[in-house]
Amino acid sequence: MILSLHPEFTYQQVKTRLTSTADDMGTAGFDYEFGYGRLNAYRALAEVSIVSPTSSTLLLQGFNHTITWTSNVNRTYTILLSTDDGGSYPYQITSAASNNSYSWNVNTPPSSNCKIKIIDNTNNQVYAISQTFIIAGVSPTIGFFSAWSDYGNPKLYWEVSNGPAWIEIWRASPETGYTWYQIATITDPSVTTYKDYSLASHKFGDQTMLYKVRARGQNYSPYSAEAGVNYYGGTWLKSKPKEDGSIDLPKDFNLNQNYPNPFNPTTSIHFDLPEDGFTTLKIYNINGQEVKSLIAQRLSPGRYDVQWNGKDNSDVGVSSGVYIYRLQSGKTTLSKKMTLAK
Q1: Model confidence pLDDT, tens digit, residues 189-223
Q2: Dihedral sign, CA of 299, 301, 306, 312?
C-alpha cells in the first residue's frame, strides 16, 4: 500500500516509514535495536501535503496568513517555523492545528529563508516541510538603483534596505507614449538584477526606455529614481522622489563638470532641467564631429545624471583625448570639455 502511494520509494524508505510510525510496546532487547511493537498502518499510510505557503508566497508581519494542507487522515498537528532555510525550527506557530488549515498571525522576524514543517502530534513524526518562502519587512526601501545597456538589452540593478521584499519592475517606452507599465515582479530577495530580454528582437537605438522599481513588503516603498537606457549605452538617472513622491525641481538650467575627469572609461554628467522640453546631450570630438548621442528626447523637469562609457554611436571605444559634451533644451545650449585618458 505504501508503494502504491509512493512507487518511487526504495526498500529502505518503506522500512523507515513502517518503523518510524510503529507503536512502541516495550523496551528494546539486549542489542538495543529490537523490542516489542506493532506496525500501525493508519499512521504509515498518512499523507500530508502543504498547499500554502509556497515559494511564491509573501507573508507580511502583523497580518494573518492561512496555512493550508491536504491530508488523508484526521489528525492534530504541531507547526514549526524556520527562518534559516530549515537549519532549525525555533518558532512554534501552533500545537493544535487541524481540519487542514490554520490562521496564523505572522509575528516573527523578517526573513527570506522561511520554511514550516508539520508534525503529527500522535507520534512526533514530520509529515511535511514547505518550500522556502518570505516574511517581508514592514517598510522596505530602495537604497540604490541604476540601469545600463548590456549587449543591447537594458539591465537593472538595485539594493533594498529594511527587507526582505519583492521588487516590482516598471517600464515606459516610446511604443506606449511613455506610459508606465509593470513588466515583472521579482519574488526572490537574493536577486538584485533584471535584464529586459523583451527588447532583444529589435534594436531600440536612440529611443530611450525608462525604468523604475519599488519594493513591496507590508508597505510599498516609494518608487526609485527613473533610469533611461538606449541601445548604444547611453544611460541617465533622474533625481529620486522624496518620501511623499514629490521631486525637488531645479530653478535654473545647469550643466555640471563631468566626474571623474579625466576618466577611463566611464564618466558621469549631471544637469538640471527646470522646464519640460525636447533635450539632447551629445559628445563631440575637437573637430566638431558627433561621437555619441546620449539623449535625444523630451524630458520632464528634474535633475539628471548621465553615464557615458567611452564608446561612440557604433558601440566602439573612442581614443584618448579631449571631448566636448553639449546639452541643448529649447533655446538654451551649454557645453563643457572633458578628457578621456587611457
Answers
A1: 889 999 988 765 444 555 678 899 999 887 888 88
A2: positive
Which of 69-73, 143-147, 157-161 has maximum average pLDDT? 157-161
CA gap 91, 111 in Å, rounded: 13
Q: Which of 12-21, 31-40, 45-54, 314-323 is predicted most confidently? A: 314-323
How, if at all, do strands 153-161 and 48-52 pair?
unpaired
Q: What is the pLDDT of residue 300?
A: 78
Of residues 111 and 151, more confidence is placed in 111
Q: How far apart are CA 132 and CA 155, in angstroms?
A: 27
List of long-range contacts for 256-263, beta carbons under 8 Å, 24+ apart: 257/336, 257/338, 258/308, 258/325, 258/336, 258/338, 261/338, 261/339, 262/338, 262/339, 262/340, 262/341, 263/310, 263/338, 263/339, 263/340, 263/341
